[in-house]
Amino acid sequence: MIHPALIKKQRMILGISILLILVTIFIGMGLGYSSLSYDRLVPTLLGQGTFKEEFVLFSVRLPRILITLLAGMALALSGAILQGITRNDLADPGIIGINAGAGVAIAVFFLFFPIEAGPFVYLLPLVAFGGAILTAFLIYLFAYNKNSGLQPVSLVLTGVGFSFALSGAMIILISSAERTKVDFIAKWLAGNIWGTDWPFIWALLPWLVLLIPFTLYKANRLNLLGLSEPVAIGVGVSIEKERIILLLTAVALAASAVSVTGGISFIGLMAPHMAKALVGPRNQLFIPVAILLGGWLLLFADTIGRNIIEPSGVPAGIMVSLIGAPYFVYLLLKK
Amino acid sequence: MVRLFTDDLSIGYGERLIVNNLSVTIPDQKITTIIGSNGCGKSTLLKAITRIISHKSGSVLLDGKDISKENTKILAKKMAILPQSPESAPGLTVGELVSYGRFPYQNGFGKLSKKDYEVIDWALEVTGTSDYKFRPVDALSGGQRQRVWIAMALAQETDIIFLDEPTTYLDMAHQLEVLELLQKLNYEQQRTIIMVLHDLNQAARFADYIIALKDGEMVKAGSCEEVIVPQVLRQVFQIDAVIGKDPRTNKPMCITYNLLKGEKQHEKNISTLYAHASSDY
């Protein structure tokens, strides 16, 4: 029962988003510290570039581009789900403590475990993922009430509380640590997309391949969870079960993204919001738009961020916040 | 045969019991109205019968099965609920909202079938909301919105429909419009309708069966002639009511009433006032 014109509009917006992503990828492939001119891009892609060109493209830029794209998508989807189950348009993965939880896990691991260069980088995302899941689990445990089940309001409040407590713990942890270690942790927190290698892509991709269709499959239930509770129960949604399943989905998505990119906020808030403003609140319609916009936003922010100051650039998380904070203020003013 | 009844039903929040060992029977294919003063447990009873809240003890039986053990989707094909002042999502259109009523019949991705579209169009038409199909629900007036929510409940295609104060926040004309629509649904399609109403005269005019509650216990249940009588109203609402007959419908109606406790309170207020006035001099 959706207006045909709206469906057409949604298709068009999907098309434009894909185009934006492709253009940004193309621009991103040619921008960076090492020069790789645009007229050499196509030959290099086809395997006719020099060793240096191929190295820059396939081992440096492409993995980073793909990682940011996928992480942005995962965060956007996670945010869309969380906004649905909490019935709160300002919810995002940060709110259920994903960023803070992963951050503390990274800090503890980095400070107290012996570091070996080789397998160490591959352990980090696992640690971050574990930290995020553990935090989400604890928040769930504290927010859950025996009589009334999982109430959205108490989930959000407990989540915000945990986030602050964990951020405090983080400051205590790193205040007495060595300078070099603190540098890495600070960068991680700022969301500097550090996991820029193919294995990280293979670690992130399956989550999306599985959970995007799964969420679309659940879209109808998300629609109903967005209405008042009695309405959802009345049409036969097992709200308690659906909330938990969807919460798990959101946590898995955000945790897998944050574990390779570092602490990135606002994408999960902005992308679903923009999508809803464009195509309305029906989950089937806005979720695909939100996913593409989320991917594009993070990619766009990182493409600017890594080229804005030579040579180290500005972390993507900070770029996103620079774009996100004004948007957040705009949202609040509009309300 | 009776399809729906409660057996020794007790409902409460925390330690507090709202409804205590209540056994009521809902007559089939009739309009039943639950009346009672604020906080008497009438909405709570409605919510427990429709599984929106869980009950402490006893049971609600529909077609011989305990609803707390029944699959919620199967129940949704048997009974629909219009809660008190339901909330829609911002920007959601009327057609979309009504289509959500088809949820119990859908599986998988929620693509609407031809049958779904037919039922949705029918529900919009019966409630007179077809013209707003593509308009956002939050842009409608209170009366229009209420009819849209009824359309959603109708799209569920259930024999039994529950409504919790469906006339709240509506003006007199719109109240009547909603109640007449429900009467029509009952008359033409033999749907069982159970609602909570505040207005006694509306209850008397539209209900075949009235259940009067007081402090979570049943005072009286029966036809309007049996329930809308001074003795029952005295007990249920603490009012001294004068009951006459509606000249048009021939149903009982409350013409005027006084508060039972209020009279004494009023006298007391006046005497304290005099006492104060005299002490000033």
Envelope shape of chain B: globular
Distance between the termini of chain A: 28 Å
CATH superfamily of the domain at 4-94 and 192-334 in chain A: ABC transporter involved in vitamin B12 uptake, BtuC
Please give the CATH architecture of the largest domain in chain B: 3-Layer(aba) Sandwich
* Share of residues in helices of chain B: 25-40%
Element pattern of chain A in H and E: HHHHHEEHHHHHHHHH
Low-confidence stretches of chain B: none
Task: Please state how the strands of the largest beta sheet of chain A are arranged side by side.
Answer: 1-2
Number of helices of chain A: 14
Description:
The complex is a heterodimer of chains A (335) and B (281). Chain A has 335 residues and is an all-alpha fold. Helices cover 79% and strands 1% of the residues of chain A. Chain A has a domain at 4-94 and 192-334: ABC transporter involved in vitamin B12 uptake, BtuC, CATH 1.10.3470. Chain A has 14 helices and two strands. A two-stranded antiparallel ribbon of chain A has the order 1-2. In chain A, helix 5 (117-143) runs antiparallel to helix 11 and helix 12 (267-279) crosses helix 13 (283-308). The two termini of chain A are 28 Å apart. Chain B has two domains: 4-78 and 158-280, Rossmann fold, CATH 3.40.50.300; 88-157, no CATH class. In chain B, 37% of the residues lie in helices and 26% in strands. Chain B is built from ten helices and 13 strands. Chain B has helices at residues 42-49, 72-76, 94-100, 114-126, 142-155, 172-189, 200-206, 224-227, 230-237, 260-280; strands spanning 4-13, 16-22, 25-26, 31-35, 57-62, 65-66, 79-82, 160-164, 192-196, 209-214, 217-222, 239-245, 252-259. Chain B is globular, with a radius of gyration of 21 Å. The model of chain B has no long low-confidence stretch (mean pLDDT 89).
